């Protein structure tokens, strides 16, 4: 605003220094505004007779907040009164001049809207189309009689989405005013043509299924759609389903489709040939399955000491082929040895390789239960120990021995040259004795 006032003052100062034509007071006029949009007035057009012999160099508004002016076009912005001034030169004598207009801006209130289809729209829409605001003119009328077209962003248009065929009511809605309506005739789509688009070969064998068919449909509005179902399919003159399988009798017939009262052109002639005989081949032989067990057999030896290895003597290995009858294996190729580590063990598991009826070696694991494992044995030479009454050739660690001068002796361990024992005649007395081992 300060800029415009400064310009206006500059014009006045120039006017005081230069010859100036008389300041003409032109007729007053009134503009309206509705808070955001103002009515305009083109002074160069409406006062062309007054300004015809003059060159305008500047347009000035006394209060740009009330009314603005650009190239002679005045726009009302806010309620109030101001002056619009044109400054320039007279063409003939180059004298400066001024023309002033007093403009009064008043508020106007939206009163109603109206909607009208543009020319040709009534024959444009088909079922499935959606409304476009560009096809309609929506006009806003104010309480002072002014009108203006609404911008597309200012109003809503219904119905939204695809239109149905027949007479439809189009409704425009703006602010809080009553909606405006107009009638619109929506035409039903009519199929103009249909064509098969995807079948590249018409050569089949007996029993072959009908190929998946894609059809292109063209409507009377020149729009097209692609369909993969919903149309009738004919082989020759017979309608068939999508699961149809070709027969020799179909040879030389054609395929065609029908939709919306239109039938496609006939396809190339079908060639149907007998199905080639397939050579039967024997299925691959099933791989036999074997399981193994020891039946009811038991090992000869069932009592062991820690450190000993399991002896499978006495047990037999049986194999069962494909769930059949057990067969005793006659050839055991290899046994792995099981060594007992603890007196708590009651079973032994070992791996064995058995030759079966096919001559193949089959590996399996066998577990034998019902075993007893005792403590490890310490072997002593009775002739090498002095002053001990020997009643056995070997003794287990912890075994009690009868000595000449001590009632009980328990063997604890063995070294290279001595055997260390301890007496345990009484539960609360222990005495260790070292006996010399003679060479």
Task: Tell me what the structure shows.
- There is one protein chain.
- The termini are far apart.
- By secondary structure, the protein is mainly beta.
- The protein is built from three helices and 37 strands.
Mean residue pLDDT: 78
- Helix fraction, binned, reads under 10%
Estimate what percentage of residues fall within beta strands. 35-45%
Computed Rg: 59 Å
Q: What distance lies between the first and last C-alpha atoms, to the nearest angstrom?
A: 133 Å
Q: Name the overall outline.
A: elongated
What topology emerges from the helices and strands here?
Layout: H1 2-17, E1 24-25, E2 29-33, E3 40-42, H2 43-46, H3 48-51, E4 54-61, E5 67-70, E6 73-76, E7 80-90, E8 96-107, E9 110-117, E10 136-142, E11 147-149, E12 156-158, E13 166-173, E14 180-186, E15 191-196, E16 203-205, E17 215-219, E18 224-227, E19 232-235, E20 238-240, E21 255-259, E22 262-263, E23 271-273, E24 290-293, E25 303-305, E26 318-321, E27 327-328, E28 332-335, E29 347-355, E30 361-369, E31 372-374, E32 377-379, E33 394-396, E34 400-401, E35 409-414, E36 418-423, E37 431-436
Parallel strand pairs: 1-8, 2-8, 16-23, 25-31
Antiparallel strand pairs: 3-6, 4-7, 5-6, 7-8, 9-10, 10-11, 12-13, 13-14, 15-17, 17-18, 19-20, 19-21, 21-22, 24-26, 26-27, 28-29, 29-30, 32-33, 34-35, 35-36, 36-37
Describe this structure in a few short sentences.
With about 450 residues, the chain is mainly beta. The chain contains three helices and 37 strands.
């Amino acid at each position: 605003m300060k800029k415009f006032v400064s310009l206006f003052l500059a014009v006045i100062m120039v006017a005081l220094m230069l010859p100036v034509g008389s300041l003409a007071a032109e007729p007053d006029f009134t503009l309206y505004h509705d808070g955001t949009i103002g009515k305009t007035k083109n002074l160069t057009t409406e006062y062309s007779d007054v300004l015809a012999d003059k060159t305008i160099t500047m347009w000035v508004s006394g209060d740009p907040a009330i009314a603005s002016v650009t190239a002679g076009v005045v726009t009302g912005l806010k309620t109030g009164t101001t002056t619009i001034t044109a400054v320039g030169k007279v063409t003939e004598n180059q004298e400066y001049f001024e023309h002033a207009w007093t403009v009064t801006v008043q508020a106007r209130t939206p009163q109603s809207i109206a909607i009208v289809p543009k020319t040709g729209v009534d024959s444009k829409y088909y079922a499935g189309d959606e409304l476009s605001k560009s096809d309609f003119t929506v006009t806003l009328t104010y309480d002072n009689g002014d009108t203006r077209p609404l911008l597309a962003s200012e109003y809503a248009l219904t119905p939204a989405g695809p239109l149905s065929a027949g007479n439809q009511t189009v409704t425009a809605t703006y602010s809080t005013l009553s909606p405006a309506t107009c009638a619109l005739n929506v035409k039903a789509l009519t199929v103009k043509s249909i064509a098969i688009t995807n079948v590249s070969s018409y050569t089949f064998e007996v029993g072959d299924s009908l190929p998946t068919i894609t059809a292109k449909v063209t409507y009377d509005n020149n729009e097209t759609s692609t369909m993969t179902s919903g149309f009738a399919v004919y082989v020759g003159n017979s309608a068939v389903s999508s699961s149809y399988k070709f027969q020799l009798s179909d040879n030389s017939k054609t395929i065609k489709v029908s939709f919306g009262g239109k039938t496609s052109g006939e396809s190339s002639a079908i060639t149907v040939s007998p199905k080639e005989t397939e050579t039967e081949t024997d299925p691959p032989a099933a791989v036999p399955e074997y399981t193994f067990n020891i039946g009811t057999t038991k090992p000869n030896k069932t009592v062991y000491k820690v450190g000993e290895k399991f002896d499978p003597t006495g047990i037999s290995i049986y194999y069962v082929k494909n769930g059949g009858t057990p067969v005793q294996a006659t050839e055991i190729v290899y046994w792995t040895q099981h060594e007992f580590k603890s007196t708590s063990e009651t079973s032994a598991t070992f791996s064995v390789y058995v030759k079966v009826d096919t001559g193949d070696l089959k590996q399996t694991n066998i577990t034998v239960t019902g075993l007893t494992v005792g403590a490890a044995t310490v072997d002593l030479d009775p002739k090498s120990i002095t002053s001990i009454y020997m009643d056995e050739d070997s003794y287990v660690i912890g075994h009690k021995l009868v000595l000449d001068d001590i009632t009980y002796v328990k063997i604890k361990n063995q070294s290279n040259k001595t055997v260390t024992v301890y007496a345990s005649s009484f539960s609360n007395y222990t005495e260790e004795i070292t006996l010399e081992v003679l060479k």
